[in-house]
Structures are given as structure tokens and as C-alpha cells.
Amino acid sequence: MSEKHQPTVHRPEPVLVAVDGSANSYQAAAWAAAEAVLHHLPLHILTSGAVQTGFGPGMSLGEADLEWLRADAERVVGEAERVARAAVPDEDLVITTEVSFELAAPLLIQRSTAARMVVVGSRGLGAFQRGLLGSVSRAVAQHAHCPVAVIHGVAAIDPVSATQPVLVGVDGTANSVPAVELAFDEASRRKVELVALHAFSDSSALDLPAFGWEVGRQSAEADLAEALAGYAEQYPDVPVRRIVVANRPVRTLLDESASAQLLVVGSHGRGGFSSMLLGSTSTALLHTAEIPTIVVRSRT
After folding, report:
1. Chain center to CA of 11
2. Rounded to the nearest 5°, which phi and psi values hold at 54?
3. DSSP state, residue 60
4. Among 60, 78, 191, 286, which is most buried by a count of CB atoms within 10 Å?
């Protein structure tokens, strides 16, 4: 009798969001829910009940303490699911939740191999200074195998923010190609303009001689046009505004992000190496940008 093989069931990669009970992580859950709907993907909400002591083993706890931690973790994912449902009312969104007792950072990094995107808050319950990345968020942004969205004070999914453009930093190297691809896709799904910004100097235009500024500008405009070539045909519905400046990338991207709903950057720029975890521009933006920021690297 011949053996019957069950057909392989393809399960779409989810949007994975980490929550810890902080207000910032619930903002991340709301943004992740909207992102999952945009991509017609399931949302997986994950929390860790482990005592976060770094990458080593956690401290030993008694049974009563473990039960309390489990109950509190279940409360956290339950509240995150409620927030996610409220963020995308009337949408047919599949949401799953999970409580783990593995340390959060290495768990999220491992799970990132099977996720479309990992979403984290910029800081958790242990953070005490506004604007600084939490240790878990920083580790995931540095080591994840998929794009990582870091959500700051607000989720920027309100009706006003929803009309603002997607902003992408373009440095003219292969390192920014995945970021450009993702930014076009996000702008298309959100039905908004894409702003592509290329800063071709680490100095202000005022520091450059007139001849140097003009030559640099022309070369930079050509580099930006080449970096965007082909996407107009692939995404004809996305209007593109190009910005070329002679200034530091962090400063100009931060200035432009004030009127954007989403910032997309590569994991490292023209000064980086393929083995770098996170470039200086990406790191600075994750610490200082106030809108949701996605760091994109080639899938590893």
C-alpha cells in the first residue's frame, strides 16, 4: 500500500511584536497590527516572563514567583491583543499570543529568521531616560535576520499621520537597496508619497566651495536617480520626491522625519562593512527619531 504524503501547508511569515507591559510596547503592538493588515499577514504577540539579566541564565525563582510571572505575562499579552484589535477595528486580522520564559533578546533574534518583521518599542519598563533604546530593542535591531521596526513615543497610525509620506535614506550603495525596496512597498500599501533623501556630504553646504557643491550635487542626483531606477515601473502608484543635500545624513533625515509617518534606513551605510551590526547613522536615528523607524538589512 502506497504511503500518502500530506501536502505542504505554507504558513505566511507573521509580523512579530514584542511586548513587556510598558506603554511604549503597547504602541508597538498597535503599529504592528496596522502593519500586519497592510501586508495581509498574521500578527504574533510575544512576551517573556523571564527575569531579564542579559544573555546569561536568569536567577532561580520559587514556584509561587513563577506562577505570578506567568499570570502577569498572560495579562500583558492579553492587553496587547486588545490594543491591537482596537488599532485595526473591523479588520479580519489573525492574532496569536505567546508567553515564553526564554530571555527576550536571544529569543526574538532566533524568531526573526521566520518573521517578516520584528516590531519592538524603543524602550521598556527598565528604561528611565527618554530617547535611549532599551537593551532588548538595541540587541534585536543589531542582530535580527529580518527588518526591525522600532516604535518610539507614538504609533503614528492616526488619520493625520496616515497621509504623511514614507521617508527613506539612500546612500548610493548596495547597502541601501533593501531599504529602498521596502520603502517603496510601504508607500504603495499606505497610498502615500515616498521621499528619497540622499545626503552626499558629512559637512554642511556652507562649508563647501561653490564649485564643489555644484559638482557634488550633480553627482549625487545621478546616484540617487540610479538607486531609484526601475521602481517607478514596479510601483507606478507611488509619487516620489527626491531630496539631495550636502549635510550630515542623521541631521537631514531627522529634520525631514518631522513631516513623515515612517522612516526606513539600511543597517549600515557607505562607510560600513557587510559584517557590521549597525552603522552610525542607523544607530543615531534609532536613538533620536520620534517616528516609527525600520532598519533593513539583506536577509541572512
Report:
1. 22
2. 105, -150
3. P
4. 286
